Amino acid sequence: MRARRQVPSERHYNPIGVVHGGIAATILDSAMGCAVHTTLPAGWSYGSLDLSARYVRPITADTGRIVCEGVVVHRGNSTATAEGRVWAEATGKLLAHGSGSALLRPLS
Q: Which residues contact 9 (CB under 8 A, 6 or more apart)?
């Protein structure tokens, strides 16, 4: 499941001059959540239980557009696990990757 493409800019920088890791973590969480969502029947919801992000390369405004993809690793009756990757669209270089799990619940 591909998440929305984003273009990082200096407004995302932390005090050391690179995009804050929380941006990559948020994109990973969203892509993995969307992937889990595609496995749910109507009337079900999900929420993140945990998230682990690993940063491979710094992201800057020069990185250009970044892309994130989430893939479900396991879906059970009450939880699901997923993995995600963030890469630079222009170069294909991996920037960050992560894993997480979600709690699955019926809406009613």
A: 61
- Torsion, Cα 34 99 61 3, to 10 degrees, reads -10
DSSP tally for the chain: helices H, then strands E: 1, 4
Please, what are the averages of pLDDT over each run of 10 residues along the chain (108 residues)?
67 91 95 97 97 97 95 98 97 98 95
Question: Taking CA 48 as the corner, what is the angle to CA 20 and CA 95, rounded to the nearest 5 degrees?
Answer: 35
Q: What is the rounded (10 degree) CA torsion for 96, 11, 49, 36?
A: -70
What is the C-alpha to C-alpha distance for residues 24 and 43, in angstroms, rounded to an integer? Answer: 30
Q: Which pLDDT belongs to residue 81? A: 98
